[in-house]
Amino acid sequence: MTPVQASTIPLFRANKDVVVEAVTGSGKTLSFLIPILEKYTQLHSQLQPSDVFSLIITPTRELAIQTYNQLQLILSAAPFNPPPPLLLVSDPDSSVHDDRKRFSTLNSHILIGTPGRVEEFIGGNKGTKGRGKGTGRYSNFEVLVLDEADRLLDLGFMGVLKSIVSHLPKQRRTGLFSATMTDQLGNLIAVGLRNPSKIVVKVTSKSRKQEISERRTPAELHNTYIIIQQRDKLAYLLKFLKDQLLDGNNKMIVYFPTCATVDYIYTILKQLPGSYAPSSSSTTLHSLHGHIPPPKRTAALTAFTNAPSAILLCTDVAARGIDLPDVDIVVQWEAPADTRSFSHRVGRTARAGARGKALLMLSAGSEEGYVEFVRGRQIPLTPHAPITLTDAPDADELCGRVRSVLLRDRKLHDMAVRALTSTVRAYSKHEQVFLFRVQQLDIAGLATALGLLRLPKMPELRGRDDLAAWRDEPVDWDTYAYADSAQEAKRLKKRDESKNENELKHPSKPLKAEAWSVKKGNRDKRSSQKEKREAKRRHDKAERMKQREVGSADSADSAEEKEEEQDWKAHILETREAKKLKRRKLDKQQDKDEDAMEMDDDEDVNGNGNGFTFDDL
């Protein structure tokens, strides 16, 4: 057993809840499959056809399929004839209704799936009247496993997991497994675990028997980095992959930040000549990301796994938990936005004690500080040997070659634009914003590496001072066509519609056929009118100058007149205010006299001021 298996299996099979943290590739999957199967072997005779015994939840469908296949392999050697497990993942050819049919047909007792599909299966479709009717009985439920638990929380599945746990009995065993742990796991532990045992497996050096404190990567992994310019990225990547193929490293994975970048680089490498691209007849090229349909994703993983020599271009969808055997090299086009993904990416190689290499490509500038940042996270990182382009095309030559490929089909340039804009957008959302500042990103250099024909309109390009060296490819964009005839017809239709719309908004006056004498007369008339306007403008200017001169001569007299006028206005205002004040005093005195007269009238004969008697009433 591996260290994590030796530490986890005795506790988990002894009815203990566990939280397990160990480096990727250390054997965590068997750490929960073996206790589950041992309990299942003991209690399977007590289970009814609709009982659910165990549930395993993973963040991605690829990891769920991998765990399902491993469990199937072990069950095939069981001393009894157990029913097969049920796989619950998103599939365009299989709905939740189909999953329920297979559950009743196979009599499965162990479920493996992704959070959304599992919630639909267990909780049912929720309607206006409350919770829908789920599938399966859970009175004999025993074990719940959350694989890659921190990734489940990062993807926003906290509410879904709470909903799933609410359908399960509290008397159960629960295990959380991951290569990295986050602070959010405390909330999940409070919901789903009871007094858990935490198991942290650290990497030790076998030669000196000294513990490497909190190392997050396998001990046999040679983790390196290289500092290059953005414009040289594609050229250096292709040269590095070629060198590794010559050295006998046949399985390689390259991680890109976005799905659009994966699609574009994959398409370009498939169309570049053999002298430029690293793939050949013996080396196949594959792509994998979250926007590819599930059947094609499964086919790509299978083809990469079975190929003797292959290169996989992918996003972080293939970074966690997936066991891809015999991977020799892992390359990262740029640092991942989430630091935890770094250890998961490089963990696809050097698994289970094997040797492996990893290369991180960083740009010169503030990104160089990422090296010390990663080292502070207990991930050793050393500089890679310089990569020379003596026998390989440089950035300018490769850019020209890529542009020639793009000129064949306008669709390729659209893909290049999406790759650039999505990469810049992902760069702006990096967690280490103090190191990865989009204001310092060499967008023009990145566009050169991708071979763009022209820079797109982007808000990140406003006010840039580093775009002087950029040169657009001379292209007639009106005739630059799509290779697909249907797409080209759609473009032409849209162009004509926009042209007609502009003509309706801004109609042009039709040209009239006029004689030469009429045209000359019109020209003479316009020139004479222009001369008259100029003469009038000069005359008005001279008049204004005269008025200024007269005004300066009479300035003293006008000042005295203005002063007398202001004094006279002030005298009139004072007179009016005095009259108003005198009128107010007279009105107040008159009101006092009337009040005194009323008081006299109200007094009775005895001098009392009651003002009325009962006779008055």
UniProtKB/TrEMBL annotation:
Chain ranges of the Helicase C-terminal domain: 233-398
Region (Disordered): 489-617
Assigned EC number: 3.6.4.13
Keyword ATP-binding: yes
Organism in which the protein naturally occurs: Wallemia ichthyophaga (strain EXF-994 / CBS 113033)
Chief location category: nucleus
Segments of skewed composition (Basic and acidic residues): 489-506, 524-534, 540-551, 567-578
Entries under InterPro entries matching the protein: CTT_SPB4 (IPR056330), DEAD/DEAH_box_helicase_dom (IPR011545), Helicase_ATP-bd (IPR014001), Helicase_C-like (IPR001650), P-loop_NTPase (IPR027417), RNA-helicase_DEAD-box_CS (IPR000629), SPB4-like_CTE (IPR025313)
GO cellular component: nucleolus
TM region(s), chain numbering: none
Pfam families assigned to the protein according to its UniProt record, in alphabetical order: CTE_SPB4, CTT_SPB4, DEAD, Helicase_C
Keyword Transport: no
Catalytic activity: ATP + H2O = ADP + phosphate + H(+)
Job description of the protein: RNA helicase.
The protein, known as: ATP-dependent RNA helicase
